[in-house]
Amino acid sequence: MKILQDKVAIVTGAGSGIGRSVALVYARHGAKVVVSDLDEDSGRDTVQQITHLGGDSFFVKCDVSSPEDNQALVWSTIDKYGAVHIACNNAGIGGAMAPTGMYPVDAWDKVIAVNLSGVFYGVRHQIPAMLSSGGGAIVNMASILGSVGFANSPAYVAAKHGLLGLTKNIALEYGARGIRANAVGPAFIKTPLLKDLDNQTFDWLIAKHPVGRMGEPEEVAELVLWLSSEKASFVNGSYYPVDGGYLAQ
Q: Residue 195 pLDDT > 80, yes or no?
C-alpha cells in the first residue's frame, strides 16, 4: 500500500517550485491533493500533472495572507473529500532586500502577512478539521533562515524564525490529540523565487553550500513526504534542514 493511501492533503503555494513537487509526491504516494495557489493558471497546471499521474486532485485559489481564504480552502477540502489529514504550508515570498534600518514598512508587512500570519491562518482552520478527521500531520515550510540571519532580509528572517516557534507550539498543544507539526528548512533551492538573480549572485549563493550546488525541489519534497507519513509517527515539534551543509558552517 502507498504510504499516504486515502489521506487528504492540502498544499499551499503548490503552483510551482517546492509546493508543486510536494503536491506531486503526495499524489504519487496515494493522497488526494488539494492544490492551492494565488496563481490560478500554475495551480491548475499542477492539478493536471497530478491527474496525468492517475491521482485525485482539485484546485482552490487562496491568498494565504487572507484569513477568509484559508478558511474557505479548508471548507472546500472538506466539501470535496470529507476530511483533512495533511497540510503542507508552503506558500511564501522573498520580499524586498534592504538593511533593517532602511527596510520599507510596507514590504515588512507583506512578508510577515504571507510568510508568518499566512501559516497561522492556515493552521488555525486546518487543526480543527484534522481533529475531526482523527488526527493528522502539519509540515510548515520554514528555511535555513529560520535558524540563522541573512543580511538585508530582516522580514524574511523574522518570519521564518517565528514560524519555528509556531510549529513548536502546535506540537505541544496537539501532540496528545493526534496532530504532529514539524518544520522543514530548505537552503537555496532552484525555484522561481530565484529566477531574477544575476549570474554573479547565483554563483555566490552556490558557493555557500558545501555540496557545491543548490538543491532541487524534489529533494525537499521527499523530506516533506516522510514527515507527513506514519513513518515519522514519533517526530513532532522538530525542525529539519535540507541544506547541502549550509548550516554546518
A: no
Positive or negative torsion for Cα 54, 59, 65, 68: negative
Q: What's residue 232's pLDDT?
A: 98
Question: Would 152 be classed as within a structural domain?
Answer: yes
Catalytic residue ranges: 156
Residue 121 domain-assigned (yes or no):
yes
Q: In what order do the strands lie in the sheet with 136-141?
A: 57-61, 32-37, 8-11, 86-89, 136-141, 179-186, 239-242
DSSP at 146 = G
Q: Report which DSSP code applies to 215.
A: B
Cell, residue 60: 482552490
Give the total number of structural domains in the chain: 1
Q: Which residues form the domain of 168?
A: 8-248
Query: Considering the domain boundaries, does residue 2 fall inside one?
Result: no
pLDDT in tens, 1-49: 899 999 999 999 999 999 999 999 999 999 999 999 999 999 999 999 9
